[in-house]
Amino acid sequence: MSDRQSHKSDLSDERWALIEPVITAWKARHRSVSGHQGNYGMREIVNALLYQSRTGCQWDYLPHDLPPAGAVKYYFYKCRDDGTDQTIHDLLRWQVREKRGRLADPSLVVLDTQSLHAAAEVPAGTTGRYANKKVPGRKRALAVDVLGLMIAVVVLAASVHDNAFGTALLDKVAANAGTLTKALVDQGFKTTVVDHGRQVGIEVEVVERNPADAGFVPQPKRWIVEQTNGILMLHRRLVRDYEHRTASAESRVYWAISDRMSRMLTGTSTPAWRGA
Questions:
Q1: What per-residue confidence (pLDDT) applies to 176?
Q2: Do the Cβ atoms of 54 and 234 come closer than 8 Å?
């Protein structure tokens, strides 16, 4: 850790220790031809990513006491493209589940989508309009376990039907969690998702809303994905979609949830920005 004054989003020594082995191994595999290891410590690179995630600032508005935008972008894109962001996330998730007395991978997940407005500079070819909610932009779909921990994320144009999100999520969770046998979905997902679940060995149950309920009524087990969506809203970079590529939008979610899980494992709370 440098001698600079810390930001609230910075990794503590305990949180850094959770991911440092993965980062160090990754760094060793990415030496330059000359053997140069770069001018910036990887802990500070991660601190910059977490700062941007929590504050929502643009690349060029990263504080001067953090590595410059060019260096942070380089490592963000590298980790996105080779899956290191997901590797870190999955290792932390396994630790949280085992700490809670559960197997590393779940047997049940809950699927849901969330509509997001896209920033003006986001390419029009990767966005669309969600007719039901009149939201122009993208949708983010999550598969979470009963603890609210993310198993998979998919980001596509808001105009894409929930069926496409559902099948993409099922493919991801089937590949990432071999113990999975059941998925709960809401009524936005149709027969296509149920049928696809059978093809990948996952029973898909559509949880129907009680017609007698008025307003928002949490549904048993399904409510946990709403809680996870709410936690993501603590990260201002995720409140609106600013990413040119959907892969970058998904990577942002991995880093945000990894931030949360590292706090869960070390018993530290997430600083609130309400009223700031």
A1: 85
A2: yes
